[in-house]
Amino acid sequence: MIPTTPAVCPSLALSARGHALVASVAAAGGVARASRLRAEGHSPHHIARAVAAGALERVRRDWVALPGADAELVSAARAGVVLSCISLARRLGLWVATEDRCHVAADPGAAGGKPERAAVHWARPVVPREPDALVDRIENALLLVAACQPVAAAVAVWDSAVHRRLITVAELSRLRLPPAARSVLARVDPLSESGLETLFRTALRWLRLRILTQVFIGGHRVDFLIGDRLVVQIDGGHHVGAQRASDVAHDAALTLMGYHVLRFTYTQIVDDWPAVQDAIQRAVAQGLHLSR
Predict the structure, then answer these.
(1) Residue 219 phi/psi, 5° resolution?
(2) pLDDT tens readout for residues 98-152
(3) Mean pLDDT of 269-279
């Protein structure tokens, strides 16, 4: 009978130590420095044997990876850089407006290459990077975001990191921040629950009016309160069915309490901001944000 799968050469079969080696690479995220593996007790012989057996792949002279390992990590190891800026923000689940290519970081003067189609940030980290790291520290990534992205988009990422408690405003304020990062930090609002809210808030900063985020009024939270009486609600994709009915009922209650409610959709905020801003400007011009 013809075998349906190729047989593994017995001489290349993994030993117990080989399996332990593979487990160590998996524990490191699927990509590991060979010198680190040797420091953990895995011999060069077992590393070479695992590569020959196809259990590991040689990424670079001192790096190996599991077959099918995270492509971004493999690329970072091959180029001698770390994933950072908005690419790290995305991997952490933070709000990112757009990401057209991979963003990586490297210390000035560091040896290595450049991943294909990647944006490379040559900057000294505010928090030292471990030699074996393939992903940057959150602090370093946020500083690069502040320098790389438009202000509103950068504030949205910082807001998201603080809101998810990956870092605090106090911790950030104690770092040696360059001017761009200081400017972003001054705009951070820990109560902002989405990047869309951040974009809205920062885009109206020029109005020089008090804009409060996530305020409880009438037993429910509102997205924004401009001045004393102008409520702005932003509808995401979940504002349908029972949620929509609840929103309409709350709008009615707010109106009876003397508030003025403007409600916009995600698409309006992102794709038709001039119209949204115009509506708010006209509401402010009419004094709808003032108590009477």
Answers:
(1) 85, 0
(2) 777 899 998 876 655 566 678 899 888 999 998 889 999 999 999 999 999 989 8
(3) 90
- Which residue shows structure tokens 């009615």? 252
Structure tokens at 53: 């057996």
Q: What is the mean pLDDT of residues 8-12?
A: 40
Closest among 75, 64, 65, 68 to 117, alpha carbons compared: 75
Tokens 């593996």 belong to residue: 37
**HSE of 110, CA atoms in CB hemisphere, 13 A:** 20
Distance CA 175, CA 183 (A): 13
State pTM to two decimals: 0.77
291, pLDDT greater than 90: no
Return the closest-CA partner of residue 85 out of 44, 61, 120. Answer: 120
Q: Of 246, 194, 259, whose CA–CA distance to 220 is shortest? A: 246
Q: How far apart are CA 149 and CA 124, in angstroms?
A: 18
Helix (H) or strand (E) holding 23: helix 16-27
The string of pLDDT tens digits covering residues 229-248 is: 999 998 865 555 577 778 88
Is the Cβ–Cβ distance between 233 and 266 less than 8 Å? Answer: no
Whether 81 and 105 have beta carbons less than 8 Å apart is answered as yes
The first and second tokens of residue 83, run together, are 């994933």
DSSP state of 66: -
